[in-house]
Design goal:
The chain is an alpha+beta fold. It has three domains: about 80 residues, Phosphorylase Kinase, domain 1 (2-Layer Sandwich); about 180 residues, Transferase(Phosphotransferase) domain 1 (Transferase(Phosphotransferase), domain 1), CATH 1.10.510; about 100 residues, PH-domain like. Helix content is about 30%, strand content about 20%. It contains 16 helices and 17 strands. The protein has a seven-stranded antiparallel beta sheet with strand order 14-13-12-11-17-16-15. Strand 13 and strand 14 form a beta hairpin. Helix 7 packs antiparallel against helix 9 and helix 9 packs antiparallel against helix 11. The radius of gyration is 22 Å and the shape is globular. The two termini are about 45 Å apart. The chain binds adenosine-5'-triphosphate. This is non-specific serine/threonine protein kinase.
Length: about 500
């Protein structure tokens, strides 16, 4: 952890020029909007090995901020609304626990996101203003997106009108054109990572999976590059293109496929390759099994069909004429590409009032910055109407395909399918045991001894959260609570919140 702190420090203090002025001019959201532009010229992007970050590392402490609600919890971070006490400026503070990041080997991802966001300057991309750290945590002060996730808008509205979907898709296209021109592949485009400003404009977020292409204009520090380990993919199951499932290297076509899936989801309310388990989702993707609802216009069907081309180089935006082909598609007719940020956005659907558990926003432990990275329960995840398949498809890795082995089928009845499955550790006071935890659409929740292939426990299902609930303690650790028993589990793939979501979605189905 110390090494990481030093590493961050040294990388952040390479050059002092510009920094003092940038810290006063660029560390507030208002200055961001004045400097933001659609300009894809990278003249202002430092390209040498030694450079000063635009977003400086400040000597702030968490006490300098008044913390508000938790915007959300990621696999290794927590994002909290935070008002700087002296200036009154509101940020989205991304808090990462150093110990956890180091333990989980996420250092390279954190550095990469930091350095990439630092060099991106576009109104459609979440801006990084400054960073700071203390002994326990790293903090990134991001532009606060008060409108929440596009995912929540789709969930609250059921589905979007074609005009509204066109507006959001055009803003995403505009930001993606910039990202691709900078030589980056985002690799996790999906409605959860498309945030909205308070007035309803799109901001692309979550650059933790970003991949710089060979000719990238972005300067990447040593050890900050993301890796593509064999047998894993980066991204989210429901939005992954078929070539990635066949282990082809990432191209910008990945993002265009994901854009097609996202547009489909805006118009229909669900992603195109929806199914009861990741395994089935992958099968659908490989078979390119797409069904368009009747109410999709011909233009919408056509653009989605083209974006979901199995050949990544034929997706509009990936060809030799670049984004011109995508922007000229009849679906986008009438879009004023020169001034899309000047258009009036769709009206935001507001958060439904007080679901149970919503009061946790002010829960002291979740507001305690030293708990950063503890993966406290994601607050308003807006997922109540979403299917369990989609919830479980989120933030999962291809490695889980291997755990979806036919040997688990013997624990299913005919017609029953797996919603979520993980090799987890069942923690007891002094010992821990590896078990296969299996959630099915019945619903049924069992854990199985993986060596003896014996059911070791059947957790009595209840749709009532008083009788069955999941408590997330960290990205990896969670408890399943029933009136008689509390069972603790550790999921090495950090899917604690996904387990919670999957179980709750089945309870709310
Ligand atoms: N700038 C922001 N403004 C408002 N909310 C944000 C902002 N950035 C992130 N969030 C919210 O916080 C949640 C957690 O974000 P974070 O970047 O930590 O992880 P993630 O992208 O959700 O997940 P993962 O790291 O697992 O891919 C997001 O889902 C989003 O809803």
């Amino acid at each position: 952890m110390l090494a990481m702190e030093k590493d961050f420090d040294s990388k952040l203090r390479i050059q002092s020029s510009n920094n003092s002025s940038s810290s006063t001019t660029s560390s507030s959201p208002s200055s961001a909007s004045s400097t933001s532009s659609n300009n894809t010229d990278t003249g202002n992007v430092p390209r040498s090995k030694s450079f000063a970050f635009r977003a400086p590392q400040e000597n702030f402490s968490i006490q300098d901020f008044e913390l508000g609600k938790i915007y959300g919890v990621g696999s290794y971070s927590k994002v909290v609304r935070a008002k700087k006490k002296d200036t009154g400026v509101v940020y989205a503070l991304k808090i990462m626990d150093k110990k956890f990041i180091t333990k989980e080997n996420k250092t390279a991802y954190v550095k990469l996101e930091r350095i990439v966001l630092d060099q991106l300057d576009h109104p459609g991309i979440v801006r990084l203003f400054f960073t700071f750290q203390d002994s326990f945590s790293l903090y990134m002060a991001l532009e606060s997106c008060e409108g929440g996730e596009l995912f929540d808008q789709i969930t609250r509205k059921g589905r979007l009108s074609e005009d509204d979907a066109r507006f959001y898709a055009a803003e995403v296209v505009d930001a993606l054109e910039y990202i691709h021109n900078m030589g980056l592949i985002h690799r996790d485009i999906k409605p959860e990572n498309l945030l909205l400003t308070g007035d309803g404009h799109i901001k692309v977020a979550d650059f933790g999976s970003v991949k710089p292409m060979q000719d990238s204009r972005i300067t990447v520090l040593p050890n900050a590059a993301s890796d593509d380990k064999a047998c894993t993919f980066v991204g989210t199951a429901a939005y992954v293109p078929p070539e990635v499932l066949n282990s082809s290297p990432a191209t910008l076509g990945n993002d265009l496929w994901a854009l097609g899936c996202t547009l489909y989801q805006m118009l229909s309310g669900t992603s195109p390759f929806k199914d009861a388990s990741e395994w089935l989702i992958f099968q659908r993707i490989i078979a390119r099994d797409i069904r368009f609802p009747d109410y999709f216009s011909d233009e919408a069907k056509d653009i989605i069909d083209r974006l979901l081309d199995v050949d990544p180089s034929r997706r509009p935006g990936a060809g030799s004429d670049g984004y011109a082909a995508l922007k000229a598609h009849p679906f986008f007719e009438g879009v004023n590409w020169k001034n899309i940020r000047g258009e009036t956005p769709p009206k935001l659907a507001l958060e439904p009032v007080a679901q149970s558990g919503e009061g946790d926003h002010n829960d002291e432990s979740s507001m305690n910055p030293t708990n950063a990275g503890d993966g406290s329960v994601r607050q308003s995840d807006g997922n109540l109407g979403a299917s369990a398949a989609e919830a479980t498809a989120s933030v999962t890795r291809l490695a889980s395909i291997e755990s979806f082995d036919s040997k688990w089928q013997q624990f299913l009845e005919p017609g029953e399918s797996v919603v979520m499955i993980s090799m987890v550790k069942k923690l007891q006071k002094l010992t821990s045991k590896k078990v296969q935890l299996i959630l099915t659409n019945k619903p049924k929740l069992i854990y199985v001894d993986p060596a003896k292939l014996l059911v070791k426990g059947n957790i009595i299902w209840s749709d009532n959260s008083n009788d069955l609930s999941v408590q997330v303690l960290s990205p990896s650790n969670f408890k399943i609570c029933t009136p008689k028993k509390v069972m603790s589990f550790e999921d090495a793939k950090q899917r604690a919140s996904q387990w919670k979501k999957a179980i709750e979605n089945l309870q709310n189905r």
